Amino acid sequence: MPDPTIELLDTLPYGRQTIEEDDIAAVCDVLRSQWLTTGPTVARFEQELAAFVGTRQSVAVSSGTAALHTALAAVGVDAGDEVIVPALTFAATANAAVYLGARPVFADVSADTLLVDPASIAARITRRTKAIVTVDYAGQPAPYDEINTLAERQQVPVIADACHALGATDHGEPVGSRGELNCFSFHPVKSITTAEGGAITTNNGYLAERMRAFRNHGFDTDHRQRAQRGRWNYAMTSLGFNYRLSDLQCALGIAQLRKLPTWIEQRQNLAARYAERLADIPGVTPLALRGECTHAYHLFVVRIDAGAFGRTRDEVFSGLAQRGIRANVHYLPVYLHPFYEQQFGSQRGTCPQAEAAFEGILTLPLFPRMRFFDVERVVGALREIRSGG
Ligand SMILES: *Cc1c(COP(=O)(O)O)cnc(C)c1O
User: pLDDT at position 389, please?
Assistant: First the structure.
């Protein structure tokens, strides 16, 4: 058997989960219990997640993508509607609208933070706009005050794709409480993991019930509720999916959530060290920070200015890869993917800031178990690449 720690020493991924003995024990406890899925642990995870972000409800689902699909369906997004989505995001943010037959309308980002620009959202609102989706790019909260004001005026719900930002705050309020519905992912590179998994947090009890039905085929009760009531019968009142998250996964989620504040602090410390060490390397610049918020640092994104650095972003990416450092690029503007070009006829020039930013952005490794010497290794590699080594 190869020793997995060797691989960890040799190559530095851009993100990585943290699994400790208490996580393993929590999963094993569920394996020995009566319920593997849709039992008491799902409800407990939902309560703890809601408490963490300060909302009344949360609904656990099978992925972040399922969370977005479920949230948009709950607010009534339907065929022919428009959903405003930031251009610089993971494809799933926009795909969720397409699942429902709606058209994603791409909003541009602010050049300094790469967060969605409220002015661009405002310019794209039409009578057909059914929802506004925000993204807390890299883990920094979107400017929710401005977006919520805009959305209230138009009477359109804000759906937060908060998949990058569990553990961040905006004006002292936790991310997860700033949108009408707030979507999370628990994929291993995200801030906590359930292997695959997701959730929606909300204060809206009506929408929470709709989402509970949607994740379970549109049934009005789940298996455990029927067992508790000693009944077999249930009614399918709408069309839903199997988007359930299991007890097994929720046990892992509960164990992970307890450690999240420490992990966020570690991410913030590593990001601060990067910023300090990169300050005197021309042509490598971290993204700007908004005031009045705290950053969850899902990703540490820098811009490579090819003129000042002397190498292009792709050359830096390759140079790092040759040194065992696996950087990444988040993201190609979604509408430039072939599917969107073919299905929606989207074209270059739609969101100039996102397109310009895309040429230079690079995600450097950042995860809680990294050490300062890993940061030194990345910074050292960047210096070498710059000097042509
Ligand atoms: C990870 C992610 C998703 C999708 O989450 P999955 O759990 O992988 O389905 C959606 N949006 C953003 C911004 C993400 O980072």
Answer: 58
What phi, psi does 383 have (nearest 5°)? -60, -45
Separation CA 106–CA 331 (nearest Å): 14
Q: Which residue's alpha carbon is at the smallest distance from atom 7 of ligand 1?
A: 64
Condensed to tens digits (0 to 9), the pLDDT of residues 207-255 reads 999 999 999 999 988 888 888 888 888 889 999 999 999 999 999 999 9
Between CA 360 and CA 369 the distance in angstroms is 27
Ligand 1 centroid–CA 141 distance in Å is 16
Instruction: Compute, in angstroms, the gap from residue 124 CA to the centroid of ligand 1.
Output: 24
Cα distances (Å, whole numbers) of residue 220 to 36, 51, 152, 283: 21, 25, 31, 57
**Pocket of ligand 1 from Cβ distances under 6 Å:** 63-65, 89-90, 92-93, 135, 161, 163-164, 185, 187, 198
The percent of residues above 90 in pLDDT, for the chain, comes to 92
Q: pTM for this one?
A: 0.96
Put residue 99 in one of left, alpha, beta given phi > 0 → left and psi -120 to 50 → alpha: alpha
Task: Label residue 273 exposed, middle or buried (CB < 10 Å: 0-12, 13-18, 19+).
Answer: middle
Q: How far apart are CA 113 and CA 120, in angstroms?
A: 14
Digit-coded pLDDT (tens) for 262-302 = 999 999 999 999 999 999 999 999 999 999 999 999 999 99
Side-chain-facing half-sphere of 11: CA atoms under 13 Å: 11
Q: What is the C-alpha to C-alpha distance for residues 222 and 266, in angstroms, rounded to an integer?
A: 39
Q: Which residues contact 183 (CB under 8 A, 6 or more apart)?
A: 64, 67, 68, 71, 159, 160, 161, 162, 163, 198, 199, 200
Cα(298) to centroid of ligand 1, in Å? 12
**Nearest C-alpha to atom 15 of ligand 1 is from which residue?**
163
Please check whether residue 298 is in contact with residue 164, taking contact to mean a CB–CB distance below 8 angstroms: yes
Catalytic residue positions, numbered = 190
The CA distance from 5 to 111, in Å, is 39
- Residue 119 phi/psi, 5-degree rounding, is -65, -35
Kindly give the interhelix angle for 21-31 and 247-278, rounded to the nearest 10 degrees.
160
**Ligand 1 atom with the shortest distance to the CA of 187:** 7
Q: Are 109 and 86 in contact (CB under 8 A)?
A: yes
